[in-house]
Each structure stands twice: as C-alpha cells, then as structure tokens.
Amino acid sequence: MAKIISCKSLGKRPVYDIGVAQDHNFLLANGTVASNCFNKSHSTAYAYITYQTAYLKANYPVEYMTALLTASSDNQDKIEKYRENCQKMGIHIISPDVNRSQKDFVPIGDNILFGLSAVKNLGEGTIDNILKARNKEGSFKSLADFCCRVDLRVVNRRSLETLIYCGAFDKVKANRNQLINDIDLVISWAQKRAKEKETGQLNIFDMLGNGIQNNNNNQSEFNQEPSSSPVADFPQPQRLKLEKEYLGFYISEHPLKSVKEAAKILSPINLSELENKKSKSKISAVVIVNEVKKIVTKTGKEMAFLTLEDVSGQSEGVVFSEVYKRIKELLVEDNQLIIWGKVDRRDDKVQLIIEDGEIVDNVKILIVKLTIKQAVNQNFQQNLKRILQENHKDTLKAKIPVIAIIGIGNQQKFVRFGRNYWVQNECKVISSLEDAELIVYTTPLISVIE
Fold first, then answer.
1. 160 Cα distance to chain centroid
2. d(CA 265, CA 246)
3. What is the pLDDT of residues 249-265, one digit of tens each?
4. How far apart are the first and last CA of the chain?
5. Is 290 a member of any domain?
6. Is 182:225 a contact under the CB 8 Å cutoff?
7. pLDDT for position 236
8. Pseudo-torsion of CA 139, 145, 147, 151, nearest 10°?
9. Are residues 72 and 189 in the same domain?
10. How confident is residue 213, by pLDDT bands cut at 50, 70 and 90?
11. Could you identify which of 147, 215, 241, 264 might form a hypothetical disulfide with 190, taking C-beta atoms 3.0 to 4.6 angstroms apart as the criterion?
12. Domain that holds residue 382
C-alpha cells in the first residue's frame, strides 16, 4: 500500500481520458476533445478498491459483512439487504443480547452478533450506559439487576421495552411478556434502591442478603426483586411481529419456518430464485404479505402492488384487476399465503404477476393411499386420473392439492400430482375414490407439516 508523504504542484499537465470520444466526451467547435470522464489515475484507484473489497468478501466473508452491517447501522433498508446477503452466504446473524452485544456488529466464528446501534429507539447514550455498566460489574443476571446498574434517566422505559421485544433479554429470561409486565414494578424498585444508596441508607434485607450471599456461594442479591403475576409468553406470531417492528426483520425465527415442509409437498420456490427464472415461467411460493398498495386504474378498476417476503428474502408482486377482485380479501398485511403466478421481467426488474392465492391455514391436501400393486396397475392409474380430472373442472376453484402415498412403513413414497389434477369438491372426490376401493382422506396442510 503506497503512502503519500508530500504533495508538489507540477503546473498544468495533459489529462488522459479513458473514454471514447463519440461516447464519453464533448467535441468542441475547434475539434478538440473536452474530457468529462475520470482520468486513468482515478479509474485505477477505483479498480484497486474494487479488487480489495472483492478479495475481502471472498476470503474474509464474515468480517466483510460485519463491516458492511456496522457501516449501515442507521439504515434499516440496507441492514435488511445485507442480512439477506448473509443468509445466502450461509452466515447467521445472532439476535441482540444485553450480555454479549457491542455497539457495532461483531464477528463470532461463522456468525455475526447483532450490534445494539442497529436496534430502533436505542440512542448512543443509552448504548454507552449499558456497556459501561456491563464492563464494570459483569453480565446482567436479571431485569432488576440491569435496572439497578444502568442509569434509568438515560436507559428509559422505552429503551427497556425495545430490548425486551427484540430479544436482547432472552438469555436472561425467555418470557418476553413476563418481562414487559414486570417493567413498571422493577423500575420503581430500582429507582428506590438507587435513591437509598445516594442518601447512604441501606435496606435491612439488603444487609442480610449481602451476608447470606457471602456465606452461600454467591447467591443472587436480587431474591427480593418484585415480579408481577406469572403470565404466558406472547404467541409466536405476535412475538415475531414485535421483533420485526423493532429490528426491521425477523431474526430469532421466521414465521414461515413452520410451513417449511409444505414447500416440499407443494413445490413452491423461494423468492430469491425469481432472478433465475425465465420470463412468464409459472411458479408458486409460500409468502408473508408485508405491504399492500392498492391503486385505481384509469378505467376505474382496482389493482394492487404487494411487498412479499419468505425465508429467503423479499420481492414485489402485482395483482391485476380481475385477480384482485377475486382474492382481495386475502391481501392483508401479515397474512401467510400460498400464491401462484408467473415471472415478469421489465425495466431491469423482476416481479411476480399473481394469478391466484390462498391462506396457508386454509389449504387442505387430499391424501390417496396406494399399495405398490395398485400403483403399477395401468387400469387402476387410469381410473384414478379420470376421477381426479372429473373433479377439476374449474382451475380457479380447484385448490385442493393431491398427494399419493405409495407403499407402507419405511417403504413409503410420496407422489405429488400436478395442478391439473387438483380438485374442487373434496366430498365428491372422496366418495368417488372410496367407491374405487381406495383409502383417501383430506387433512389441513399445517397438520401434514406437524
């Protein structure tokens, strides 16, 4: 690496342009060329920086992504973009932790520990106060311990709620709802203790507690800390929704994780794969609706633009008027949907044209059990196909996928029928298949996953 130790003016010198006259420069009236591109020395510097960053990303991916995340701590959109890149690179981002996280993102092995500076509602003063208290006396043992050691005039109630909702106290106490319920009691108790210490007063229970602590293997001095009545933790969907609200994305778990097996059965793609799909390719995906932007066309019809998300990232979806009229009740923020559509490429952008959708919880699967003898019998196969096709008359209404289970025990194989065999009336098709001496039943998709 060269180091500049002095500068000296050489007067006027020619500027050598790397561009082509017809494409990159202005031709003056006298026929000379007026340069408006970077000169060679400038382009060389850019090329060298490009080489350096490419080298770091290839050889030190965790450290490189850590630096990018830290540099973008104040930009939620960039944080989300880099988090998606980390996911594609196999780098896991660990949730914030009051006992481990620093101000910046930190590389830990093949993972990255979330930096407190990227958590919403945490100012620099709040973070510095927390780190100072932790560095001085070690890890926080409880919410009460935390409140007693930080300055509650700096680390206020809003900051505490943020830390709890984003999961920073999970290693201290996993029940986030209980911590939220305890906040007011604990803050009041900690403020009272702080006031007593400032005035030189000492609670008799603290004196006894300290004595017991010294004689009983460092037992916690916070046995008398207040606590509200026990409550159950937030339901997982609410827990994750609050987590995303304060971090900008899901980090401890993705809501679609529970339908991961459904992806194998119904064969949807990840949104990150859209870039690799040809234009007009027919696809399906299991997604969460993040945002719905409804618009009215010039002809007075309603349509919508959607922001969709799955475990791999985000993408834009477009619902044109006719489809919107049919499925608009499903297009609600935070709804988990299975959608069908086609890939659209225009203006250097890839998006999904949605043609149909269904709420994941409402999706049923028709299970047909076949013996190996039945499966290889051509007449039996034709009869099964005929029954399914007779119940597939309306493609838009045929939303029950069909799965065949062939064999028994460890010899079972699953065969997924194409969408042209999905059925509409489950009662009618079950009756027809039972008449054909088949074992058949429907089950919710969620129960198949579980």
1. 23
2. 34
3. 888 888 887 776 666 67
4. 57
5. yes
6. no
7. 87
8. -60
9. yes
10. very low
11. 147
12. 363-449
Task: Please give the single-letter amino acid code of residue 83.
Answer: R
Here the tokens at position 140 are 């926080």
Domain count, the chain: 4
Phi first, then psi, for residue 86 (nearest 5°) are -60, -45
* 254 within some domain: no
> Per the domain annotation, does 252 fall within a domain?
no
- In this structure, are 150 and 232 located in the same domain? yes
Q: How far is CA 437 from CA 138, 222, 432, 433, in A?
A: 69, 68, 9, 7
| Residue 76 tokens, joined | 């939620």
Reported residue count of the chain is 450
- For the entire predicted model, the pTM comes to 0.70
**φ, ψ at 289 (rounded to 5°):** -85, 115
Neighbours of 285 (CB within 10 A): 25
Tokens for 154? 């700096």
